[in-house]
Design brief:
This protein is of the alpha/beta class and 466 residues long. The protein contains 15 helices and 19 strands. Helices cover 34% and strands 20% of the residues. The strands form 5 sheets. A 6-stranded parallel beta sheet has the order 2-1-3-4-5-6, with helices on both faces. The protein has a 5-stranded mixed beta barrel with strand order 15-16-17-19-18. A 3-stranded parallel beta sheet has the order 7-10-11, sandwiched between helices. Bound molecules: S-adenosyl-L-homocysteine (SAH), iron/sulfur cluster (SF4) and FE3-S4 cluster (F3S).
């Protein structure tokens, strides 16, 4: 039962861009608004309140936001709404960066908030509902850790758990430290208490979040304590544990060793390399070399043969030469990633790299990018062949988007897996359970197979994932 609030029976919709940190923040927003009696809806057309959680890591996301908010002006209100005008809010990293400038450019915007004051959103929306006008509030630094807010998770069986916010690394191309502030760690007791709550609520998979989880604890305890977080999380009894993101300069042997010893830690690691050229890595201020990175890969495979590696790569960083690019190409060929997120360099005002001119023509950069993507696909296809014939434990997410007769879920290595649903069992019934699937087809971006123990409805065995 809710007491009556200004939000009672209003419909809201949150549109999220960018990284998992933003997706998680959106779950907190949904949690707060639902707690106040508002109702979540899928479409903007059906919503009385629209919240955009924005990203400015590359230019494309920026342009999209301004377009989407502008076009809202012409979207009619839903039938039966008590409001005379839809209330529109912008938060996240563009909110943090642009503040007042947003309402100057988009006058029908009602509320702007930043990355440090998620918790202010209900108050700002309430002011907009009751008084009209613009309500802009952007703070410099976090006054409280956002995780003290309620959350409405997208899936009952999976939870994101931020262990740090902000970033101290200042890679020369990156806007994140400017819009998320300095790195701040959460006390270990808070993290464990939240994880225990999730385990008790039936959550199967926890993903620890931070811009660089490896430096967790440096601000609180004087030295990084990420390995201790992994131990403590494993001890909660969580079935599957993952984390993102890991900076190669701070990935320790101790953390690598956890892949060999911790029951719950899934055999997959996202380890962004950005470039395979030492000259470019130095210009990016990444503070590791190609050789160091390849040594990490060797140690990871020694600790856990078959670990699935994924990475991020930027093509066309200012000054990248043909030789630099070949170094990146060769590194990708050598490592054999399961997945690579490839980006063309995007100039971000205010970052050190933005003041470096680059004479390389656009079509040359595009040509490098296309070549790299071809290689990535070829190597991902090859990496997936290793699972042909294997039985893998799949955490079911629901029905496949392409075929309602197929279940879709995730393998321990984080591959998408499809399998026909048993007769009379719906994808909804299996969602959130772990089922064994025998893999008989391995494609570039997914595996498919058949349930290994006929109609394993409800099978939720404590898979150790290896
Ligand atoms: N903290 C994480 C994620 C940062 S943003 C990390 O360090 O890996 C995610 C990815 O976006 C980065 O890994 C990088 O590959 C890419 N990226 C960041 N800034 C960019 C820019 N200016 N142009 C192109 N890609 C960028
Ligand atoms: Fe950006 Fe580098 Fe921080 Fe990642 S580690 S968020 S790429 S500055
Ligand atoms: Fe984008 Fe902000 Fe994340 S800029 S990548 S949403 S931290």
């Amino acid at each position: 039962m809710h007491t009556h609030t200004p939000f009672t029976n209003l419909a809201f919709c949150v549109r999220t861009f960018g990284c998992q940190m933003n997706k998680h923040d959106s779950e907190r927003i949904a949690g707060m608004l639902e707690g106040l009696g508002a109702l979540p809806v899928e479409s903007i057309e059906e919503a009385d309140i629209v919240v955009f959680m924005t990203c400015c890591v590359r230019e494309a996301a920026d342009t999209r936001l301004y377009g989407q908010v502008a076009s809202l002006k012409n979207t009619p209100l839903r039938a039966g709404t008590p409001l005379s005008k839809r209330v529109v809010a912008v938060g996240g990293c563009i909110g943090q960066r642009d503040g007042e400038r947003l309402v100057e450019e988009l006058p029908h915007l009602d509320v702007v908030f930043g990355t440090h004051n998620l918790g202010s959103l209900p108050r700002l929306l309430e002011a907009a509902l009751e008084e009209g006008g613009h309500h802009v509030e952007v703070l410099d630094a976090a006054s409280s850790f956002p995780t003290e807010l309620p959350t409405a998770r997208e899936h009952a069986w999976a939870a994101w758990l931020p262990i740090t916010v902000g970033c101290n690394n200042f890679c020369s191309y990156c806007i994140v430290p400017y819009v998320r502030g300095r790195e701040k760690s959460r006390p270990l007791e808070d993290i464990v208490a939240e994880a225990e709550g999730y385990v008790a609520a039936g959550v199967k998979e926890i993903t620890l979040l931070g811009q660089n989880v490896n430096s967790y604890g440096r601000d609180l305890y004087g030295s990084p304590r990420f390995a201790a977080v992994l131990d403590a999380l494993d001890a909660t009894g969580i079935e599957r544990l993952r984390f993102a993101t890991s900076h190669p300069k701070d990935l320790t042997d101790e953390v690598i060793g956890k892949f060999a010893t911790l029951r719950s830690l899934m055999p997959a690691l996202h380890l962004p390399v950005q470039s395979g050229s030492d000259a470019v890595l130095a210009a990016m201020n990444r503070r590791y070399t190609r050789g160091h990175y390849l040594e990490l890969v060797r140690k990871l495979r020694e600790a856990l043969p078959g670990i699935a590696l994924s990475t991020d790569i930027i093509v066309g960083f200012p000054g990248e030469t043909a030789k630099d690019f070949e170094d990146t190409y060769r590194l990708v060929d050598e490592v054999g990633y399961h997945q690579v997120f490839t980006f063309i360099y995007s100039k971000r005002e205010g970052t050190p790299a933005a003041s470096v001119d680059d004479p390389t023509p656009r079509d040359v950069i595009q040509g490098r990018f296309d070549r790299l993507v071809d290689l990535v696909q070829q190597r991902a296809f090859e990496a997936n062949q290793a699972d042909l014939g294997a039985v893998v434990d799949v955490l079911v997410e629901g029905a496949s988007k392409r075929d309602a007769g197929l279940l879709a879920g995730r393998s321990p290595k984080n591959q998408t897996v499809h399998a026909p649903l048993p007769d009379g069992v719906s994808a909804g019934e299996l969602a959130g359970t772990v089922v064994p699937v025998r893999i008989d087809e391995a494609k570039t971006w997914y595996l498919s197979g058949t349930l290994a123990d006929d109609g394993a409805a409800g099978h939720a065995g404590a898979a150790d994932g290896r």
